[in-house]
Amino acid sequence: MKKVLVMILVVVTAYACGNQNGGSSAKAPGSEATANDNPSYDPQRGEGKFTKVDVASGLDAKMLEAGTKVYTVKCSACHKLTGEKLVGPGWTGVTKRHSAEWIMNFVTNTDAMLNKDPKAQALLEICLVRMPNQNVSDEDARGIYEFMRKNDGIK
Amino acid sequence: MRNYKLSAMALIAVALVTGFIACKPKNAGNAVSADAAAKVYVAPGKYDEFYNFVSGGFSGQMSVYGLPSGRLLKVVPIFSINPENGYGFSEETKPMLNTSHGFIPWDDQHHLDLSQTNGEIDGRWIFANANNTPRVARVDLTTFHTSEIIELPNSAGNHSSPFITENTEYIVAGTRFSVPPDDANGDVPINTYKKNFKGTISFISVDKGNGKMDIAFQLQCPGVNFDLSHSGKEKSHGWFFFSCYNTERANTLLEVNASQNDKDFIMAVNWKKAEEYLKAGKGRKQSVKYAHNVYDEKTHTATSEIKTEVTVLDTKELKDICYFIPCPKSPHGCDVDPTGEYIVGSGKLAALIPVFSFDKIQKAIAAKDYIGDYDGIPIIKYESALYGEVKKPGLGPLHTEFDGKGNAYTSFFVSSEVVKWNIKDLKVLDRAPTYYSVGHLCVPGGDTKKPNAKYLIAYNKITKDRYLPTGPELAQSAQLYDISGDKMQLILDFPTIGEPHYAQAVAADVIKNNSVKFFKIDENTNKYVSKGESTTKVVREGNKVHVYMTAIRSHFSPDNIEGIKLGDEVYFHITNLEQDWDVPHGFAVKAAGNAELLIMPGETQTLKWTPDRVGIIPIYCTDFCSALHQEMQGYVRVSPAGSNVPISYSLGTNLPKEDSTTKK
């Protein structure tokens, strides 16, 4: 009797299983197939809307000003301007480690990059705090990149 | 042997349970049919189809459920303090609960009404009444924050509120206790009720653009108990209907003394006429005191203003505003059907439901078909206003909702049932038991021109054996019925917070896409905002110390603070620098005689703390925010009064550089 009841319970419970509609953006790293398996994925560019960013040789003063402001409010709590890791990596040399497109895609499309991009996932394994999506506009992302360039010694 | 015994016991148990259910009134045994589970099952990760906003009664708050699952989505603090998120505890939200009597930490929240445009729910705001210290609140449905609270002068027991007109022109607030007006001498013997006590109905205007409320005018009415109300719609737009009891004007043992008259009244109010008198300057400016509190989503701060004047129209002197319609046996619910033609009165002690006709009321007024007056207000002849009566519907009708298909659903407290009846022929079509003693009912849009009548929810007053026992105090129960077919079908029970009274429901699409996900930090104009860690600081102003602090996954800046002294008042102004959905940070201070803060992304909130002893006080984040949440903490050093430890603060490096207690 008892066994039968238990079996009924198991069956009823099993009925409720198997739904695959997650919809959550906060998947654990590595839970999806990484982009390594996809030959069309460009790991230098990353996942996002930026495919080709025009970067002049010198700094754009206006972009730099906007970028400095955004850095103060949205980035500086976790990223130092030296090479030292705080919550996230220090920014020294960041423009040499990553392309402008990759950086701007990561800044504007954070969750998708953390779920898919191999380099972003490698950084997450070191830092263990998912980079927050700080809702940076496209323009501000470009500003941040200009600010990073200045930090890397570009005049 | 043992197995046999077990099986026998199980069989007996099944038999007992079955027998027990069968003993309940009104065919409870077959009340739940086999497909009920499928009808209410909302798969994990899927959204509900409807929002259900449920009044919290003596909790003072509003709860938000998803339907058909009955899942509790949120409790919105309105009239009671809420230590869980700091509402009424943070410096920014304290002014929301200010009144002419000072700070009031609790109230009794009875009724809700969603804003409407053209008689349809527009999803912008929901209004809530406070029954104890009379107030009306507006909750913004983009943030689910209480945005505004207005106090009502000349009022006591704001019960027939916050019902609204079809374009949200007005919200009404009718006083349940008649009392002497605020500018009269209230120091009178209670037994001078008939002479000194007045009933007041407030018409609160709502700004079409931003929702701001203002008391447009008040109607001074005879001293009866105003109970519930609903506005006219379509053809009866411009009219409002209020039930009232205690026409005996008793001031003691109302249970008996206010149940003497065979009929009390429904009061019909021509508010367009009242507007004319107001425009013509017929109102009396009365000196009063009431608080008007507004929360600003840019400064993230509430301000409270005490207002001092209200315009009162005397309905005894100014003719053609109010008319009384006799209604049997202490009417409670006063509900208007979607066409605006039928007004359903529900006498708490009656065994029938009178349905009044708006057209007949108009004809009776034109023909002055009155049977006399009550304190200067004409009384329309019952038969001249009556469309018909629903005969023997049940015992103790309370409230009626509509499905827009010509049917009405009335709750019966005494006989514990919902009765479906046809408005045109007044015939009972179906009845369903409730468990137990149902109060209010809700059909999505059921009090508007366009009901969306898939479900009906019954909010019950008595719970008894519906859930696992939890000692003497039980949660109240709500019951969900599928009303898409001819017969009502009970499909779900769910517990509620406080005591649910009136509720509202609306299709999720009307609201969900407008939901704010975070506050833009660029738009934060809080006086004490820190936009970035480089702007954080600690500032002493006499014995007040302001800590400008930021929170981001997963640290506070600064997280080491020294120089606080006994006798100081410390204000922690925390700005959450996150700019993503669902990343609040919490903030708690050891032994703070206050609450915690829960700071939404982009928001600044302030916790006041008065240290009570010398020592090291920890602070930490209470809302699990990242893998390093447990590291999100800091220390505050409290020194004796008169100490010369200077203010210093830091993050990541020790300041002062040397440890003053171990190194010289």
Task: Please give a structural write-up.
By secondary structure, chain A is mostly helical. Helix content of chain A is 47%, strand content 0%. Chain A has helices at residues 2-15, 61-75, 94-97, 100-108, 110-116, 118-127, 138-151. In chain A, 32% of the residues are buried. Residues 4-35 of chain A have low confidence and may be disordered. Chain B folds into 2 domains: 49-514, YVTN repeat-like/Quinoprotein amine dehydrogenase (Methylamine Dehydrogenase, Chain H, 7 Propeller), CATH 2.130.10.10; 521-650, Cupredoxins -  blue copper proteins (Immunoglobulin-like). Helix content of chain B is 9%, strand content 43%. The chains are: A mainly alpha (155), B mainly beta (664). At the A-B interface, helix 2 of A face helix 1 of B.
List the helices and strands and how they pair.
The complex is a heterodimer of chains A (155) and B (664).
Chain A: H1 2-15, H2 61-75, H3 94-97, H4 100-108, H5 110-116, H6 118-127, H7 138-151
Chain B: H1 2-23, H2 36-40, E1 50-55, E2 62-67, E3 71-76, E4 98-99, E5 102-103, E6 112-117, E7 120-130, E8 135-140, E9 145-151, E10 158-160, E11 170-175, H3 193-196, E12 199-206, E13 213-221, E14 225-231, E15 239-245, H4 254-257, E16 263-270, H5 271-279, E17 284-296, E18 301-314, E19 322-328, E20 331-336, E21 342-347, E22 352-357, H6 358-366, E23 370-374, E24 377-380, H7 382-385, E25 386-391, E26 397-402, E27 407-412, E28 417-422, E29 428-433, E30 438-442, E31 455-460, E32 476-482, E33 489-496, E34 503-507, E35 537-541, E36 544-552, E37 555-557, E38 560-565, E39 569-576, E40 585-589, E41 597-599, E42 604-609, E43 615-620, E44 633-639, E45 648-650
Parallel strand pairs in B: 13-18, 36-39, 38-44
Antiparallel strand pairs in B: 1-2, 1-34, 2-3, 4-5, 6-7, 7-8, 8-9, 9-17, 10-11, 11-12, 12-13, 14-15, 15-16, 16-19, 17-18, 20-21, 21-22, 22-25, 23-24, 26-27, 27-28, 28-29, 30-31, 31-32, 32-33, 35-36, 36-37, 38-45, 39-42, 40-41, 40-43, 43-44
